[in-house]
Write a structure and sequence with these properties.
four-stranded antiparallel beta sheet; alpha+beta
Length: about 120
């Protein structure tokens, strides 16, 4: 009987030693457990507000196609006397004169003014 208990004790010791090695490698995330007061951050005061954004951040910038940029792009394509005729939520229409007479160019009303049609 003593031999069986001795073998069981040795087997238990080996199992505990094997598990302790596995636990130390699994605890690599660094979990900290604090018991008692003093380890929490106090809440911010009532008068605290985040700092304002820097000047020019998000204010006054056109979200769509700038009409002057559309006219400049139309001139680059060869449209003379280019003028913005209409602006809708989806497109900017520029009229002018091409090589064969009056011509119209249509730009998408998004940033960068991509050409939709001529």
């Amino acid at each position: 009987m003593k031999e069986i208990l001795a073998k069981a004790g040795i087997a238990t010791a080996i199992a505990v030693a094997a598990l302790s090695g596995a636990v130390t490698s699994a605890s690599a995330q660094g979990v900290d457990i604090y018991v008692g007061p003093g380890y929490h951050r106090p809440p911010p005061p009532d008068y605290y507000r985040p700092p304002p954004p820097p000047p020019g951040y998000g204010y006054g910038r056109p979200r769509g196609c700038d009409p002057r940029q559309a006219e400049d792009i139309a001139r680059d394509y060869g449209l003379r006397r280019a003028r913005v005729a209409d602006i809708t939520p989806r497109r900017v229409i520029v009229n002018g004169f091409g090589r064969r007479g009056p011509d119209t160019m249509v730009f998408a009303n998004v940033r960068g003014c991509p050409l939709m049609g001529r």
